[in-house]
Amino acid sequence: MTRRTSLALAALPASFLAVFFVWPVVSILATGLGEGGLGTFGRVLGDGHLVGVVWFTVWQATVSTVLTIVIALPATWVISRFDIPGRSLMRAATTVPFVLPTVVVATAFLAIAGPSGVLGIDLQGTVWLVLGAHVFFNLAVVIRLVGGVWAHLDPRLEDAARSLGAPPWAVFRRVTLPLLRPALAAAASIVFLFSLTSFGTVLILGAPRLATVEVEIYRRSALLLDLPAAAVLGIVQMVGVIGALAAYARYQERHSVEQVLRPAAETARRPRTRRERLLIGTILGGTGAIVLSPLVVLVWRSLTATGAFGFEAYRALARGEVISPATAAGNSVMFAGAAMLIAVGVGMPAAVLVAARRGRLSHWFDTLLMLPLGTSAVTIGFGFLVALDWPVDLRASIVLVPIAHALVATPFVFRAALPVLRTIRGSLREAAATLGASPRRVWRDIDLPIVARVGAVGAAFAFAVSLGEFGATLFLARPGSPTIPIAIYRFLGRPGELNVGRATALSVILMALTAGAVAIVERVRPPGQGML
Amino acid sequence: MKRTAALLALALAASACAQQTEDQVTVVAHDFFAVSQEVLDQFTDETGIEVTILLGGDAGLVVNQAVLTAGNPVGDVLFGVDTTLLSRAIDADVFDPYVSPIGGVVPPEYRADGVTAIDVGDVCLNYDPAFFGPDLPVPAGLADLTDPRYAGMLVVEDPTISSPGLAFLISTIAEFGEDGDYTWRDYWTDLRANGVVVAPDWGTAYYGRFSGAGGDLPIVVSYATSPDAEVAFADPPIDEPTTSIITDGCFRQVEYAGVLRGADHPGAAKEFIDFMLSLPFQEDVPGQMFVYPIRTDAALPDWFGSPPIDPNRVDPETIEANRDRWLAEWSDLVLR
Hints:
The complex is a heterodimer.
Chain A: H1 3-36, H2 39-45, H3 48-81, H4 87-99, H5 102-113, H6 127-150, H7 155-163, H8 168-196, H9 200-205, H10 213-222, H11 227-255, H12 264-267, H13 274-303, H14 312-318, H15 325-356, H16 360-370, H17 377-387, H18 400-423, H19 426-434, H20 439-468, H21 471-474, E1 478-479, H22 484-492, H23 497-523
Helix pairs in contact in A: 1-11, 1-15, 1-17, 2-11, 3-6, 3-8, 3-13, 4-6, 4-20, 4-23, 5-13, 6-8, 6-18, 7-8, 8-11, 8-18, 10-11, 11-16, 13-23, 14-23, 15-16, 15-18, 15-20, 18-20, 19-20, 20-23, 22-23
Chain B: H1 2-19, E1 24-29, H2 37-47, E2 50-55, H3 59-68, E3 77-82, H4 86-91, E4 95-96, E5 116-127, E6 154-157, H5 163-176, H6 184-193, E7 197-199, H7 202-209, E8 219-223, H8 226-232, E9 244-260, H9 266-277, H10 279-289, E10 292-293, H11 316-335
Parallel strand pairs in B: 1-2, 1-3, 6-7, 6-8
Antiparallel strand pairs in B: 3-9, 4-9, 5-8, 5-9, 5-10
Helix pairs in contact in B: 6-11
């Protein structure tokens, strides 16, 4: 890759992040510290309670990540390696939890294992419920990112190992796992960051004693009005995130393997034996129960919100008092479309660049791209307010909504693409070049189809992330055009059983919208997919 | 080419000037601000001013946003600064003082320097009547809640996060005082011993725990108007509220609006504040925001109860001077 190409690829992502991330975040942190002085560090870090919060934040994120991967891997294997009916439906279903607003999921979890939950055990305020919710939210990350690679691994590698007499477990450990490691690490890094900055889930399920740094930042910004402490906590959070990302980048570099990917249709097979069918059934049943039970609870609540079984809540919603659901849905889809375009436009060139170049600069670029995911939503929202008034005053502009969504969505595009791009074999390109293909032709015939394919996976993710985005949107000064999650929040803030009914009904609509959107994006994959 | 550029610059300058005219106003408010479209249209018809509303989270966040952008605001009017936050906003020089010519409609006790009171609301204990009867009377007031008979029945919001939670804490401080034989600290120590449940926010407390709204606990910190809202938002319709309030120990919050310092349209902002004091807006307040209009001559909807008599009140300056300390002490008493 020439220098000029690299610069061209870096231009858009670098300037986007500089203007809409680095500048606002630096501004708000400087404002907070300017108000409190450096002594704030001593005040915050000397507070035993806050140190406890930092410790809890890190360990719950680590445990959430490990649990998510352990629980998601069997389902990922089934969904990506077997040709079974309803495969894409299952993949779409696991994406639904990922986009549901945390407030909604938290109430569903309370309905299952809360003070008057159906399970009859009250886990509210314990870490178990928080971990459970994190696993529920993040299963999709592993199933999609790891599944994206697993579905294309050449089955002959495993067959060869097996024919040499390796037992199934050894085949997995010695052959499959090393090949999946980059994708696993990518998924783990996202799950970790998501759990690290978890806000609504911990706030509602862990209350009143459990708090993450993110919850504490919100607490400082909501009623305590202690911006200096919020700034210090914001810095602590970012330092932790940068550390985790640096470790990840190093690992990734060391473990990425070049390999030939096969089309998914070629690698998937029908289950052969009775035992295999039984195993698949058990795995899908178990994962299905985790994913579906909170969703079923939500649907059930939306149908019984007014005491009797029926569609009262939906009818009340359709009357459009307070907020019109059609407008909110329209806004959500529009913002998600815009955020998806921005995230792909920023994330894909960056992924192509980082995949092609190795070195320190590329490490830093990688870290910078992921950083918004590990930054507090309050910090970003307040940062927009203090920084984006010049040269054009964007602070009250509607364009900030898709931009804020894109900041959160870009890491997904980037992470979905990077491991796959790194596996394109250099020898493929060289062969094409030896056969007389021009660099442009090599790019078009070898790289582009793969880039387009992973770009589509990332786009679907970005769209879904934007549909469900709540935190960053809440903290912006938004012109009165609510997205669905914001509308749900506003209904839940008003008394009256019809309002809570409307909130649950709207959540169900969001679920349907998400599943539909993901299914559509999966269908309109670019023609290049045959290559993979 | 040069001439085109000059013309373009002129046109740009002209359009920049046009933006300075007073034919539009931007109102910044918290997420629970609401007004009927007809009422807003009426304002635009009468004054020719187009209204844009910007929402930015809950009351505390919106005030914090205004503090961060003091002098260079994102809008012209800020609505929704309440008693617990007013001094913070004034100390940070968020507002350009404005006294409305029709400010006389605001009862004297609610007038404040430079800002205009728009509505009042009361944070009160709500209870579920189905839970109480001859054997267990409804608690008469705050003091009863430490009685073992009411153990494990009360859910409150975390005052370090939730605005009604903070209001309730301040109410207990007003009731039991800071010094003496039995202070608010003793009260909360007793509440804790009696199994008070702390929820993070109003929605989780009310919808998650209050038995009047599908939960398991019969007493919750909510608003004086919540029972009326239960009537207004019931399906099938009901005539009588299914929940009630305990009138002792309510806390009165006043919500203010002011002209933001450095606003692009200060003239239009003043007109909008005058409009918020007019009867059409004031009479729209109960149905939209479930609080009481500031004007005593504004008609209330027939399903709306009258406000509680003699709620606890604490002035904004006292709250500002003590809020952080109270919250820190409360956290130590109840959470640690």
